[in-house]
Automatic annotation (TrEMBL):
<feature type="signal peptide">
    <location>
        <begin position="1"/>
        <end position="22"/>
    </location>
</feature>
<dbReference type="InterPro" id="IPR028082">
    <property type="entry name" value="Peripla_BP_I"/>
</dbReference>
<dbReference type="InterPro" id="IPR025997">
    <property type="entry name" value="SBP_2_dom"/>
</dbReference>
<dbReference type="Pfam" id="PF13407">
    <property type="entry name" value="Peripla_BP_4"/>
</dbReference>
<protein>
    <submittedName>
        <fullName>ABC transporter substrate-binding protein</fullName>
    </submittedName>
</protein>
<comment type="similarity">
    <text>Belongs to the bacterial solute-binding protein 2 family.</text>
</comment>
<keyword id="KW-0732">Signal</keyword>
<feature type="domain" description="Periplasmic binding protein">
    <location>
        <begin position="27"/>
        <end position="287"/>
    </location>
</feature>
Amino acid sequence: MKHLAGVAIAAALGLASAASVAADKEIAVIVKTANSDFWQNVKKGANDGVAGMKGYTTTFQGAASDTDLAGQVALVENAVNRKVAGIVLAPSDPDALIPAMKKAWEAKIPVILIDSAASDAGKNYYQSFLATDNKKAGELCAQALIAKIGTTGKVAIMSYTAGSGSEIGRVGGFKDYIAKHSKLQIVGPFYSNSQMGTALNQTTDVLAANADLKGIFGANEPTAIGMGRALVQAGKAGKVVAIGFDGNADLQGFIKDGTLEAIAVQSAYQMGSLGVKTAIEVAQGKKVPKFRDTGVVMVTKTNIDTAEAKNVLY
């Protein structure tokens, strides 16, 4: 009898343990693509953000590329089918993800957007949007460029995915500021689809076709890296004033050696950490702000070693 009682107790403990594991609720973090340091920093933030939230865990997935809209839609739909507790989503397109977001809303699964917005048609299907104020960030990049090259001449825009929410705000803010505060002629934008090699080739062509180019703007991490490498290869590093975006080790190196004048750095870590925490808050019935600005820091050779810069560089 004692043996049977022991077996029963062990079985009960096993069931309790299994129930404890099963009780962990999943927050699905779905980004544009996992293939960049920026998104890996979002993942790090998400993992750290959930660490202190008892009963929750995170998963992290990205589409094959920024332009793989069908792949990202499938990831969201799969998360809905798994009945996750919440979804943290960086939509690659402001409209393409709305039907999948609606499915989550119908299933009463909170959706928190990070980095890029959805169009107004999707405003009812997400509970909060965490991002850099991309329009303001684009304006800061234009301001930094004008401060170095003045208000006349030619500048090129090397962009990434046409139509994505962050690109519309970022490049739009840059162009609007240039138009309002200078007589600079804009060449482009050219779209790399967030492929570093494409950005390198495009920048090489732009430099060859515009010998009088005074400035250039690379609007996201892989694009800015490709732009920087093209400047070095063409012997134009430090001669054409270059402003980049995001803050991985390659871009930090370009700041230190003078290839880039400045980089606008978002807090990818904060998007992941605060995104997960916000999803959990909504899942627990708490009210959250519709928009949270995660900020941007303009990093230059002068301030790259400060605490403010180190908090966002990765």
